[in-house]
Amino acid sequence: MTAHVAQYTLDVTDLNLMAKFWSAALGYTASQGGDGNAKLYPPPGQAGPTVWLQSCGTPKPGKNRLHLDLVADGGQAAEVDRLIGLGARRADVGQTGAEGFVVLADPEDNEFCVLDGPPR
Predict the structure, then answer these.
(1) Which residues in 68-82 are b (16+ Cβ under 10 Å) and which e?
(2) What is the fold of 60-120?
(3) Which residue of 45, 52, 69, 104 sits 20 to 30 Å from the alpha carbon of 95, by its own alpha carbon?
(4) CB burial class (10 A; 0-12, 13-18, 19+) of residue 3?
(5) What kind of architecture, by CATH, is found in domain 1-58?
(6) Distance between CA 75 and CA 2 in Å, rounded?
(7) The whole model's pTM is what?
């Protein structure tokens, strides 16, 4: 028996900001309930886990121990520019610049990577 990733959960302090950013970044549809949380769904027919944005009252304490690795449909550089335009910023977590990924942080400083192709 094995497990599979069904959902990625992210604690957030500004639900509206983060739902707007992540739904635009991933092309997902956001559904906010009355409980202060939101669920993001992939487009119909697209594989991928849902994303649960869970409201919390505290900011992120340090570097993420778990993060998303995104693969761009239209090329890494263009995707990095697009995500920065949505509100991401470049983040330094000790990378050398020779890696096959770019590290960004979302508007609440959660790190994620944009790969230059499929994971190796």
Answers:
(1) bebebeeebeebbee
(2) 2,3-Dihydroxybiphenyl 1,2-Dioxygenase; domain 1 (3.10.180)
(3) 52
(4) exposed
(5) Roll (3.10)
(6) 33
(7) 0.92
